[in-house]
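YM 10:42: Triosephosphate isomerase sequence, as discussed on the call
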Amino acid sequence: MRRYFVGGNWKCNNTLAQTQSLINSVINKLVFDTNKIEVAVAPIFLHLPWVQANIQKNVQLAIQNSSLTKMGAYTGEISVEQVKDFGIPWVILGHSERRQFYGETNEIVGKKTRLALDQQLSVMACVGEKLADRESGQTTNVIQAQLAAIKKELTIEQWSKVVVAYEPVWAIGTGKTASPEQAQEVHAFIRGWLKSQIGTQAEQATRIIYGGSVTEKNAADLIKQPDLDGFLVGGAALKPAFADIVAAANKGR
Ligand code: PGA
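YM 10:58: structure's back
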């Protein structure tokens, strides 16, 4: 069976003191069954050394982006070799904020995903449609194109280290969550895509998590959906509400 997965994407938030307080007051007090659920949080790069030394052992670490280039003369970048060397297991790639503000195309996201997987990192690969896509009936076409660009770069085996995060762009940071039915419809589409494009193993084993204004109020209803295996949480991951979201996933369907 698929283990539930909850990611906390802290984005470019928090001073070091705020991150320390979040770790001490929320993250290190999380209680969950690691046989049933995996939890990973993604602080900014600069906070990682402190976080890594002080976080409870059941919570894993992720970074929010990695470089399209390897180690070398690439000013301002952090490469997947360095991430691996530092002992960070997870990378979030293809987040809509990276696509929207930093020009990441489907092709770039596919290439970054391969670089990370080639270093044995695990990837939360984000896909999702904009409001205009949804309103014009393009949701599944957009998602299919985003997934195809990743497929193009990966071997079938590498999919075992991918968690797909469905994050409708219109729901991110807006307070507008996809309804459980809307989320399930897209999650089922993604699962069908995994079956037809990658294989039954990937269909059955790949976690498909939902992101977009997940809160302690809607998590329990969302997790009841059969193809929804957890959450990628932004705003609520910076608050005590994160503990309630983890608890909802730990309780499960
Ligand atoms: P949000 O962000 O929970 O604040 O909507 C989710 C995300 O961007 O991953």
